[in-house]
Amino acid sequence: MIWRIDLQVPTKKDLQENIDLSREYKKRMRELYGDEAIVSFDMELWLELYEPVVKHLDVETFNNAREWDQ
Length: 70
Hints:
Number of helices: 3
Mean pLDDT: 89
Distance between the termini: 10 Å
Shape: elongated
Structural class: mainly alpha
Strand content: under 5%
């Protein structure tokens, strides 16, 4: 789940920033643990497997999802 601190709808720029962060994380994990490193934070793979959707949530559902996501 991608959410913004200001609670606005995430933009393509937000998505790209998360992809870039994921790439850097994956690169660092491979530097530390080699090519066989297990990397679960792989936005590029997620986007190959799933189509992003914008889902508007009420406050209670959003807060529950955020709590579960942390």
